[in-house]
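Running this now, will post back.
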Amino acid sequence: FSNERTFLEWMHFATILASLGVALMHGVPTPESVPIGRFLVVTAVVLALRSLHTFHWRADALDGKEIIDYHDRLGPPAIIVALLVALGWSVAHAMHWVPVPASALRPLGR
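Update: finished.
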C-alpha cells in the first residue's frame, strides 16, 4: 500500500503545481508571468510521468519480490530544483516589474 500512497502524494503535488501554473497563465494580467506558469505546468507533467514510471517500477519489483533499493534518488532533488528555479524566476520577475511606491520608502512615523 505504501507504493500507491506515495504515487498518490506525488500526483497530488503535480496537481498543485499544474494549478499554480494555470493560475499564473490565466489569472495574472501581466504577460511576463505566462512563462513562469508554463514552466510550472511542464514541471507538473514531467513530475506526473516520473511518478507513474517510478510507481510501475516499484510495483513490478514488489510483485517479483526482488531485493533492490526502492528509494527514488532522482525525483525529490529534481522537484526541489524545479521549485527553486520557479521561485527564483518569480521573485526576479516581481522585483523587476513591480515598482515600489515612494510612500513605502519613507521611515515609519514621519
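Residues 34-63 form the longest helix (30 residues). More later if anyone needs it.
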